[in-house]
């Protein structure tokens, strides 16, 4: 799944491909926001993205839609 994270005072968003489900990402985000801690997200290559919760502007979750090829 693709996750886009908008960070305050940074003009470009972070785009991460993660094996996590949307529910897992949402739970992690809510816990970080509640505690004022760090939002942690695993990427598909085994790395981790760490963003301070107070700096998050938005998080956009997109599904596992297959990419289309061709016209139409």
How many E strands?
Answer: 5
Approximately how much helix is present in the residues? 10-25%
The amount of beta strand, in percent, is 35-45%
What's the gyration radius in Å? Answer: 13 Å
Instruction: Determine the structural class based on helices, strands and strand pairing.
Output: alpha+beta
Note down, in words, how this protein is organized.
By secondary structure, this protein is of the alpha+beta class. It has one domain (about 1-60). About 20% of the residues lie in helices and about 40% in strands. The protein is built from 1 helix and 5 strands. The protein has one helix at about 20-35, and strands spanning about 1-5, 15, 40, 50, 55-60. The protein has a 3-stranded antiparallel sheet with strand order 2-1-5, with no helix packed on it. Strands 3-4 form a two-stranded antiparallel sheet. The longest helix is centred in the middle third of the chain and has 14 residues, at about 20-35. The chain is globular, with a radius of gyration of 13 Å. The model has no long low-confidence stretch (mean pLDDT about 90).
List keywords for this structure.
alpha+beta, 3-stranded antiparallel β-sheet, 19% helix
Give a short synopsis of this structure:
This protein is an alpha+beta fold and 72 residues long. It is built from one helix and five strands, in the order ββαβββ.
């Amino acid at each position: 799944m693709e996750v886009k994270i908008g960070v305050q005072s940074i003009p470009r968003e972070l785009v991460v491909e993660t094996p996590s489900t949307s529910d897992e990402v949402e739970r992690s985000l809510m816990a970080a926001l509640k505690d004022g801690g760090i939002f942690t997200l695993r990427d598909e290559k085994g790395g981790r993205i760490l963003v301070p919760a107070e700096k998050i502007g938005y998080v956009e979750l997109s599904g596992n839609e297959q990419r289309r090829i061709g016209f139409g």
